[in-house]
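Expect sequence, tokenised fold; for instance:
***
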Amino acid sequence: MHELRQPGTSYGPRPIAPDLEGDLLFLLDSSGSVSYYEFSRVKEFIADLLKLFAFGPHDVQTGVVHISTTPTMEFPFDRYLSTGAVQHAIRSIQQVMGDTNTGKALSFAKDMLFSGKAGARADVPKVMVWVTDGFSTDDISQPMQLLKDMGVTVFIVSTGRGNYLELSAAASQPPEKHLHFVDVDDLTIITKDLRDSIAAKRLRATDISTSSFRLIWPKFLTRETGYYVLEYAPTGDPRRKLTKQLTGDHTSFLVSNLVPQTTYEVALIPESNERYMPPQTTRVTTLEGKTKKGGGDSSPSRSWSSFPKPISPARVLISDSRPHSIRVSWAPTPDSVSAYQVLYGPLPGNAVKLVEVDGSLNSTILDDLTANTTYLVTVSAIYKSGKEKALSAKACTAEGEEVSMPCTGTKFGDKGGRVVLTN
């Protein structure tokens, strides 16, 4: 999915969630109860929170509403459609001052989230992040409940003391995942968790292979309250659409018998017998069907969350560490293994590359690496029966000289320049 860009400076690394779609609204306390210093720190927090999202009419759109005596819209959802433009707009926000009439702002936000005039889109997830110092001069319970009844996921970040019972009732459930109390100087502590939580409130794909992927989603329904209709088809070819009906207690489904290196449009439609729920949509691209035999090109970078997590203890060896390459070895190599998948990416980070190795081999060289960098390496054994087992290890590239260099880390033992993963 390509981001539609407007003129503006690009901030930060490449977005990590290119398949995320939704309208994300920030309800920003801009009243006189917030100091200039606090307001500037909150703006930095929002800018940092947003820098890893892709923006566009088929990606994330974001808008801002001020809480004041009278609520005002800083900008609508469809005004800024690139990372650079969004970053510049956030950093340019000026405080309005006035009273803290949060209830009025919530009613205004409800209209904005579902208004085409504000650039809101039908049938996409709606998320609101309310940043507050913990105080309001009017009632918030009724307008907040209306928002949640309409399917809006509400996150609350309180930089003041506030009333825990009131705010925990206002946030989406459970409050431990949707409510954060944090000092304004420590907002960076919650940035990643909040970003991940926002991204998690959606349909998404994991365990992506050449011919399948697993869809997972939050628990929207139960078996008693409705069912799901799942639709998927190759991009640009709706005639090949397949439809499946799933009971309401499903929160995942394995989509199989797919074509390698093909992008699929996926829609999950919750059919609730209690209230309307918007469809959840995503795009998923299956992996390339080539098998690497001890060397060759790797697949394009993907997110760690797109691949299966290690589920079985075993042994992996890291050796011959050089500035731009390392050798990865593993044991054993039973006849029942048809292939190995080696995933690797720098730490910290979320970009991952995939190498496939023939099942008769037990090592490969990973090259084109960055010097003096720690990598997380995961080796998955693909058995002929279809089962998978995986293991992980950390590896460090050398600083700049062509010498072997052991890597250190938790759960790893240094044995003569090799790293052994043990349980």
